[in-house]
């Protein structure tokens, strides 16, 4: 067997259990009645010396987790980088603490996270490690550097955040408000009947000037101007406005000239249910993500060569892992679809690390005002509280945690613009929420994961039912800017599938772990056998953070027969379905262990199962379950000959949050004649168009990929 682990000695096990009891099990036990609970920690930002300029830091770059990246500094109204000359772990500690992390783990020279752009603000940085800001460390001076962006420094911060740390974005907001942003423009409805509609789709264009809203004169205003404003608010195009509606309205700016009026065209395409030609995948929020294009019935990506804001604007207006379909895009900005732009049909020199992505403006629907997180240590976590109408008044209340899970948490994080869910909580007594909002106002919540608001999910409505009540048992979430994304290699499954008739006396451990059909219990141990459909699984993490099991090591289950730990009892489902979708055979695969079997050239392995090691799959790495290990099969002993659908589902119970669950399913067509099996048309869920996927469910011609029983 490929995977093995050494069982710890009794002394090690005793120490391990003691550590778990002292650190893990008692960490969140409630205080006894009558004992006051300690007040939540309040973060006190360090005092900044008068001669130290105020700066803002961020972590940037590709192939990174949320707590690592290229160090970028916002100074004098502009983002820039830091050179790696003389940089040290002390400087890394200062940078990580300034970002809200407890400490730095390491720092990386030589533009490990890619080359930055703009100025190199700091060079020859010297820190003692006790400074309150990177700006307080010694350096050559602001913008004084002989470095190139190939020397941009990066840091890896600890996962643990400073309790009570609050993000201070006042510097960025102050500077960016000097330019006209989406927040500085509004469309004010003219007719009273339109003023309560969300979103506003027609009316006056107004601009904020020195804190007050002012109208724009319509002299020289054109439809192109309207198109720009519509695009800023996330609408695909503009409509001609009826100027007669404003004939009696004067403007404070233009006296006798009418203020500009406009009408936006319908809803943006991301809210339309028709099959589009372009879609966004893997984004944390609505209107952002990897750009994918439908071509010949199959979804593929766009290479980022020559990708710019003009091309991105075309995609955003149009919107309403497979092959790379488009390369070297060249758009004018007036195309109705990105497929109308000029492009190179060849994808040579482009790989999926260069997939283009966009972040579009979307209409302000006000969803984020209907929800809040309360009591958390930082803005990304807390008890979920919703604004609901009760007895004719709006009031805040909690959400019943019964059956609350990761999918529901994903909707909450998206609605609040906080990225992806990292955890869903059914108990929140350790978070001090608003006492006035303890009552449950929403129950029976069940989401599909695509909703823009928690109120769009199925729920009990006004008939709230929650036996445990709210308050300390209200639903909670923690959100993250990044998430993992597991994808199975469909081609390898098709290439490695085969049948094996395996003697029953070699399958005792598999029987113990429920890896065989129920009829196996009646099979003779001495002379019986089981027919197994075997295959290899290669599971890639294409996301932006590591895939880690839900449970810590203290909760892993030791299986003595196979001599290994299970970090997730159900990691994958293997199913054989008839063409009506009914299961005729199934298997399940607990994670023997999750580890980095192989990684891309520039990625370091982090997880290894041997010796009770940490488990997970690093970004840019993959875990391989070979066809010849136990339980890597479906027991088809009782399956009659016929045509079937073979299906693999990764992380089927959504125990671990991912950026995209649609690609966790892999399907193949198969034909079994009693001795041989054909596997063909294996593909990842969501990689085909709806029409092609429907055709897949009906019989089509066979390929020559057939294998016989051994």
TrEMBL record:
Chief localization: nucleus
PROSITE patterns, alphabetized: LYSYL_OXIDASE, SRCR_1, SRCR_2
Recorded catalytic activity of this chain's protein: L-lysyl-[protein] + O2 + H2O = (S)-2-amino-6-oxohexanoyl-[protein] + H2O2 + NH4(+)
PTM note: The lysine tyrosylquinone cross-link (LTQ) is generated by condensation of the epsilon-amino group of a lysine with a topaquinone produced by oxidation of tyrosine.
Signal peptide feature range: 1-24
Record carries keyword Repressor: yes
Cofactors, names only: Cu cation
SUPFAM superfamilies recorded: SRCR-like
Ranges for domain SRCR: 57-158, 187-235, 278-361, 371-480
Gene Ontology terms describing biological process: collagen fibril organization; endothelial cell migration; endothelial cell proliferation; epithelial to mesenchymal transition; heterochromatin organization; negative regulation of stem cell population maintenance; negative regulation of transcription by RNA polymerase II; positive regulation of chondrocyte differentiation
EC number of the protein: 1.4.3.13
Keywords, alphabetical: Basement membrane, Calcium, Chromatin regulator, Chromosome, Copper, Disulfide bond, Endoplasmic reticulum, Extracellular matrix, Glycoprotein, LTQ, Metal-binding, Nucleus, Oxidoreductase, Repeat, Repressor, Secreted, Signal, TPQ, Transcription, Transcription regulation
Any GO MF annotation of the entry: calcium ion binding
Localization per Swiss-Prot or TrEMBL: Chromosome; Endoplasmic reticulum; Nucleus; Secreted, Extracellular space, Extracellular matrix, Basement membrane
PANTHER family: LYSYL OXIDASE HOMOLOG 2, LYSYL OXIDASE-LIKE-RELATED
Family per similarity comment: Belongs to the lysyl oxidase family.
Function per UniProt: Mediates the post-translational oxidative deamination of lysine residues on target proteins leading to the formation of deaminated lysine (allysine).
Name listed for the protein in its UniProt record: Lysyl oxidase homolog
Organism: Ficedula albicollis (Collared flycatcher)
């Amino acid at each position: 067997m490929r995977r093995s682990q050494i069982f710890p000695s009794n002394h090690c096990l005793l120490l391990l259990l003691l550590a778990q009891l002292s650190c893990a099990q008692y960490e969140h036990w409630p205080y006894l009645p009558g004992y006051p609970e300690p007040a939540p920690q309040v973060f006190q930002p360090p005092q900044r010396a008068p001669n130290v300029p105020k700066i803002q830091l961020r972590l940037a770059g590709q192939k990174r987790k949320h707590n690592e990246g290229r160090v970028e500094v916002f100074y004098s109204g502009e983002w820039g980088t830091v050179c790696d000359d003389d940089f040290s772990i002390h400087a890394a500690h200062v940078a990580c603490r300034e970002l809200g992390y407890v400490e730095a783990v390491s720092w990386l020279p030589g533009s490990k996270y890619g080359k930055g752009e703009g100025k190199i603000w700091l060079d020859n940085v010297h820190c003692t490690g006790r400074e309150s800001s990177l700006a307080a460390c010694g350096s050559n001076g602001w913008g004084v550097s002989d470095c190139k962006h190939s020397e941009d420094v990066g840091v890896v911060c600890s996962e643990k955040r400073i309790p009570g740390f609050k993000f201070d974005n006042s510097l960025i907001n102050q500077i960016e408000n000097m330019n006209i942003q989406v927040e500085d423009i509004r469309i004010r409805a003219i007719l009273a009947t339109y003023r309560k509609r969300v979103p506003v789709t027609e009316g006056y264009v107004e601009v904020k000037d020195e804190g007050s809203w002012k109208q724009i004169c319509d002299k020289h205003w054109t439809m192109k101007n309207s198109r720009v404003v519509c695009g800023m608010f996330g609408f695909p195009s503009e409509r001609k406005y009826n100027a007669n509606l404003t004939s009696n309205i004067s403007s404070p700016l233009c006296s006798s000239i009418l203020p500009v009026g406009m009408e936006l065209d319908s809803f943006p395409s991301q809210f339309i249910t028709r099959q589009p030609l372009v879609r966004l995948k893997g984004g944390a929020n609505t209107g952002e993500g990897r750009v994918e294009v439908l071509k010949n019935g199959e979804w593929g990506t766009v290479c980022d060569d020559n990708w710019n804001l003009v091309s991105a604007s075309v995609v955003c207006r149009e919107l309403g892992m497979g092959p790379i379909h488009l390369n070297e895009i060249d758009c004018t900005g007036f195309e109705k679809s990105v497929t109308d732009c000029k492009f190179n049909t060849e994808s040579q020199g482009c790989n999926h690390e260069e997939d283009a992505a966009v972040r579009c403006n979307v209409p302000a629907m006000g969803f984020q005002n209907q929800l809040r997180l309360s009591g958390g240590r930082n803005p990304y976590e807390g008890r979920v509280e919703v604004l609901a109408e009760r007895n004719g008044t709006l009031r805040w209340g909690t959400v019943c945690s019964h059956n609350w899970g990761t999918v529901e948490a994903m909707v909450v994080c998206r609605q609040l613009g906080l990225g992806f869910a990292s955890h869903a909580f059914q108990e929140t007594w350790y978070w001090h929420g608003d006492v006035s909002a303890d009552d449950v106002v929403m129950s029976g919540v069940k989401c599909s994961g695509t909703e823009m608001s928690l109120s769009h999910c199925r729920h009990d409505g006004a008939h709230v039912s929650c036996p445990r009540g709210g308050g300390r048992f209200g639903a909670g979430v923690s959100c993250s800017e990044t998430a993992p994304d597991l994808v199975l290699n469909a081609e390898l499954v098709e290439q490695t599938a085969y049948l094996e008739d395996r003697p029953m006396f070699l399958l005792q451990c598999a029987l113990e772990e429920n890896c065989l059909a129920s009829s196996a219990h009646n099979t003779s141990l001495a002379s019986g056998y089981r027919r197994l459909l075997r295959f290899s699984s290669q599971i890639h993490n294409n996301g932006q953070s590591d895939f880690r099991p839900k449970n810590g090591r203290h909760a892993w289950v030791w299986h003595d027969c196979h001599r290994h730990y299970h970090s997730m009892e159900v990691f994958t489902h293997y199913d054989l379905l008839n063409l009506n979708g009914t299961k005729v055979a199934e298997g399940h695969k607990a994670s023997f262990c999750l580890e980095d079997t192989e990684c891309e050239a520039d990625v370091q392995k982090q997880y290894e199962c041997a010796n009770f090691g940490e488990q997970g799959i690093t970004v840019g790495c993959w875990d391989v379950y070979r066809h010849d290990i136990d339980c890597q099969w479906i027991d088809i002993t009782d399956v009659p000959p016929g045509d079937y659908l073979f299906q693999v589902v990764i992380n089927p119970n959504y125990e671990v949050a991912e950026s995209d669950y649609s690609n966790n399913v892999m399907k193949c067509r198969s034909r079994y004649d009693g001795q041989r099996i054909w596997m063909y048309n294996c593909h990842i869920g969501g990689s085909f168009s709806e029409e092609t996927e429907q055709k897949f469910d009906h019989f089509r011609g066979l390929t020559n990929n057939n294998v016989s029983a051994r």
